[in-house]
Design goal:
It is built from 19 helices and 2 strands. By secondary structure, it is mostly helical.
Length: 418
């Protein structure tokens, strides 16, 4: 065997051993990351998937009156449905009245239609109680029982909501509705609450982020320029809120900002305001802003500090020695170097502010609540899970769009958390 042949065989054997070693490394890496992947799927991917599903899927009507849900789809929407549709509806109501399964009661059907036609809940519940007494002709029997059954809009609403997959909840979340002709129009002003709350949430989140930026920049600068011993001592004060319960921090602001709280008592004592002129600083947007700035400020300070700590102080000295004024050197030399930390802190604070729930609920009142409070209200109180899911999905989509714009304007690669 020639030396050339031996060299080729050795090279081939080396490639096989290298390939096997790479396979083992990939398997080991896969096994090491598998617990994290499973955790993310269970705690993140599946809940978001369920959220998206619930925002468009609502089989309440078809669960309660399944035969009617199929029959009503054959109606052309003109006048009133046929006698056969009325008969099917009454028959399904009689069965549903006897059915006690969760999610298949007439009360669930009544609640579902009441979202689209407020005030119609009692119509379904009262009709269901007397449904077994209605006989042919069923159309005349239903109308004789209650004249509201002669309203074509009621049947159009039943037809739209009888579909398991519906955009109705997204329409409600965007303050839209169907008119008498079936066109999508703006909801009545009385029911236009969600879009205004979305705008208010983003406006307050942006304002909170801006205030945190103004407060955090000088604090982080001082921390980065002080000797290590002193900066560590001050850093403890910055991190102190993390060691205190969020609920305690929020309720402490209630004691400080209340009309009989510390802030008003000091102002009255100093004679700045009169006893009867106490300032309302809580249960409004002011209380929400103050409390959330206090809670979120460390999330802006820490990224800024981590970036400022790496900036060589000789850069500013060199700029000043070359004739630049300190303010000009700060603006042209120091500020651009801190943008990665500023971008990271701004993104972190803004996204956290959008989703805050406890603080606005406690100190915000009716004026200072955010969209997260409305979402929680639908999930916990009104039990309109589909509308809550639609609102949450719109909020998630808006955040992703803002993140995309942020990446285009600033660049995610320029963000540094430390």
């Amino acid at each position: 065997m020639s030396q050339e042949t031996i060299a080729i065989e050795d090279s081939s054997s080396l490639k096989k051993r290298l390939a096997n070693a790479m396979k083992i490394q990939r398997r080991r890496a896969l096994l090491l990351t598998m617990p994290l992947v499973i955790f993310l799927i269970i705690s993140f991917v599946i809940p978001i998937g369920q959220l998206l599903w619930n925002s468009v899927y609502n089989p309440t009507v078809s669960n309660v009156v399944p035969n009617f849900a199929i029959a009503i789809q054959q109606w052309d929407g003109q006048g009133l449905p046929s006698e056969e549709v009325f008969e099917t509806f009454v028959s399904d109501l009689v069965v549903a009245k006897k059915n006690r399964e969760i999610g298949k009661t007439v009360g669930n059907l009544a609640t579902r239609i009441n979202y689209a036609l407020p005030g119609s809940r009692s119509l379904f519940t009262s009709t269901a109680r007397k449904a077994n007494k209605i006989s042919a002709p069923y159309k005349e029997g239903l109308i004789a029982l209650n004249k509201k059954w002669s309203n074509p809009q009621l049947w159009l609403s039943l037809q739209r909501n009888a579909k398991d997959f519906t955009p109705a909840f997204y329409m409600a979340a965007l303050d839209l509705k169907y008119d008498d002709q079936g066109n999508v129009v703006q909801a009545d002003k009385l029911y236009q609450i969600y879009m205004n709350n979305f705008f208010k949430t983003f406006k307050l989140s942006a304002l909170i982020t801006f205030i945190c930026m103004l407060l955090a920049y000088p604090i982080a600068y001082v921390l980065s320029t002080l000797p290590l011993r002193q900066s560590n001592l001050l850093m403890i004060l910055v991190l102190l809120p993390f060691w205190t319960s969020l609920l305690v921090r929020t309720t402490s602001w209630m004691a400080i900002l209340g009309t009989r709280g510390v802030a008003n008592e000091v102002l009255v004592y100093l004679g700045i305001i009169a006893e009867d002129g106490r300032i309302q600083m809580i249960y409004n947007q002011t209380g929400t802003i103050v409390a959330m700035v206090h809670i979120l400020l460390p999330f802006m300070i820490l990224p800024l500090y981590s970036v400022m700590k790496t900036i060589n102080p000789t850069y500013m000295k060199a700029a000043v020695s070359m004739g630049a004024k300190p303010s000009y050197a700060l603006r042209k030399v120091y500020w651009p170097l801190t943008i990665p930390g500023l971008a990271a802190g701004s993104l972190l604070v803004f996204i956290l502010a959008i989703g805050y729930y406890i603080t606005p609920a406690l100190v915000g009142g009716a004026d200072g609540t955010l969209i997260s409070n409305l979402i929680a209200g639908h999930i916990q109180k009104s039990l309109n899970w589909s509308l809550g899911a639609a609102l949450a999905t719109i909020l998630l989509g808006a955040v992703l769009i803002l993140y995309w714009l942020y990446n285009k304007l600033v660049g995610v690669d320029n963000i540094k958390f430390g």
